[in-house]
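Re: your question from the hallway

Yes, I did run it. Sequences:
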Amino acid sequence: MQLAQREQIDKVARLLFRTTGLLVIAILGGIFLMLLWNTVAFFLKVKPMDFITGTQWNPSGSQVSYGILPLLVSTILVTFGAMVIAIPLSLGTAAFLSEYAGKTLKNILKPVIEMLAAIPSVAIGFLGIVVLGPGIAHLTGQSNGLNALNGAILLSVMALPTIITVAEDAINGVPSSYKEASYSVGASKWQTLIKVTIPAAAPGILAAIMLGVGRAIGETMTVLMATGNASAFPKGFFHSVRTITATIAIEMGEVPYQTTHYYALFAIAAVLFLITLAVNLIGEHFVNKYRKYQEA
Amino acid sequence: MSNEPIKLAAQHVDLWFGKKQVLKNINITFPKNIVTALIGPSGCGKSTLLRCFNRMHDLSPDAHIEGKFLLDEQDIYNQKISATEVRRRIGMVFQKANTFPKSIYENINYGLKINDVPKADRPGIVEQALKESYLWDEVKDNLDMPATRLSGGQQQRLCIARTVALRPEVILMDEPCSALDPLSTAKIEELIVELKKDYTILIVTHNMQQAQRIADKTVFMYLGEIIESGNTKSIFTDPQEELTTNYVKGHFG
Amino acid sequence: MSKKLASILEWGTLLISTGTVCFFLVVIMWDIISKGAASLSWDFITALPTDGMTKGGILPAIIGTVLLTLITALVAAPFGISCAIYLNEYASDNWTTRIIRASIRNLAGVPSIIYGLFGLALFVQGLHMGTSLISAGLTLGLLSLPYIIITTEEALRRIPASTREAALAVGATQLESIRDVVLPSAIPGILTGIVLTLSRAAGETAPILFTGVAFYINNPSGYLNQEFMALPYHLYMLSTQHQAIEQVRPLAYGTALVLIIVVFLLNLSAFYIRYKHSKNE
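Structure:
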């Protein structure tokens, strides 16, 4: 092939690669615009204040209302519960992996965590119905155990691998000179871990937690299957709740296109999008902080 | 020796990486069929200057170059000539042998293939190039072996063979022996002296004995500037600048 | 003595955390394998469902998931690799590049149900593809894109600059150096990333809910413009929406086991590629 021709092809290829790069921006922009467009359509029919402060989500009853609060509180409740369980467990595991476990043990535990991460959310939701639900029902004397607690436990299982992996990287990244300094003044391994290593790795650990939170908030199938999906205002961990994601999953399949109800589902999706965006940005902030700190 | 025509030149060259200026007002000419050594302490810009001549900085977006580089009086950064063509005419051998993850034969054949050398001519050229780099006898029975299985010195000679197979006009060498043992180094030095008959060679080296052994001309650089250049013998025995004196006597570097 | 007790307690805390994590996996695997194995048979994976989904096999769901994953790969892999090539080989550090990178990170954090909505609005309605295999495949392709870009870029970054320079120095254009030298060296890493991403996509349910998945279709031929069955959705429906939920529980367990086997097989092949490559180096 002639040189000029080869260079022409080279130029075209460069343009093509660049176009795919720019298309990525277009996809995120497209998602954003889709949510914005439909949310605006929704707000033309329902007052934003009614949406934000409404305590009832009842799109099909005689008294139609589109209050996001019960869904939002459900989402927060389940995520909070998941984090209460997942954070200590993952930090303990991450610390164990990086500070105590030998090479052999690590080679067993790493695949365990990778396998846990690989299990599809629908399979975990299924176990919420057939294993965890009956278990909770047995303990509490309820008819079934499909409630916020069930969802929180399942979500914690799903968030564990993410938090463990990122937190372990953060703990591993603490310079050994820090630990040596601590040992040299007579601190024990545990004291060093609690007082030196974990504080030094804090920004990385916070980033790990934020990733876990983002995962839990956005998760659909497990909460859809395990939390019972009662649309009443959530009363606590032992009651059925219905998250934003579950509401979209249940109602979008049945709603006619371009109705107020249809737009309403995009509006709650927009809220979900903004929350995960904020969580990710906070996580990124900690990641940057951690990097700077490591470079210093 | 000074009667040789000028093959390569740099005129008023400044180069920045981001905000950091790495080359300052470089003016230098390289005569045809001569080995020129670029010497100087680490970070003096000698490798950076060398890489300008086959436009390797095109890949670093933060590099900014001003001034002119001339090959046979043609500006190699001109719109009329492409980086690909420049690189074909000015070959380069790198510090660490960077053979392709392909067979020995393919390592040389690849350049021929993409540069549209007729298929029937390729085996002959590969053999010739391997002979010119004194590698033929060692590999002729194993041309299908992955190049990565060769020793470091053999791999570097394969890189030289790959370069000469394309019959460039100039060969740039960036510390080609720095990762090699003395025996392999001796072989490559012998090869360079041999190649001088057909090519103009620029070699960056840290090794001052090496410069004295193989280079006709020597250029001493310091902090991005050319301090002194001239015949190798006079640079090493009768330097005009104090910095050069200190460097060639091994006071720093 | 009390010091020793304290150290046992401290060590014990970490051990219990780790043990609990392992316990979760053991419970999940044990329950699904022990109860799913009873339903697993040759018929179960090669027969159509019968008797109102209370008997028979799950062949259409297996075929649907395989086809869906293939479409996802065909959409996301070329697009993702191309974008990663741009970022790693061409892009300079400017505003556009930073926006592209930020977009990728954010796309990776967008909840999967929102991809489902986007697929519904863009492919099903906007481009009039209807609820179909192709709409769902494109939606999952978009979901997989950021992960493929990130893993491919990592694989490309591991290829040293000297490899690229070697090709350029013998007169290759940048495209030729990428095609002939960079990509062949990076292919194991790229493949590992793609297969791992696909194993996630194969288990996804939320993005296909409104874009084409169906509980039952008569005609399991897998046409691009038709609705399809998929393993994760089948498991969801069998375990929550079926009239005779207790009766179909063994089928649900069997489906769960098949789904997990599919996902783990994909994971294993990714590890195999990685392992084989690390041995070659």
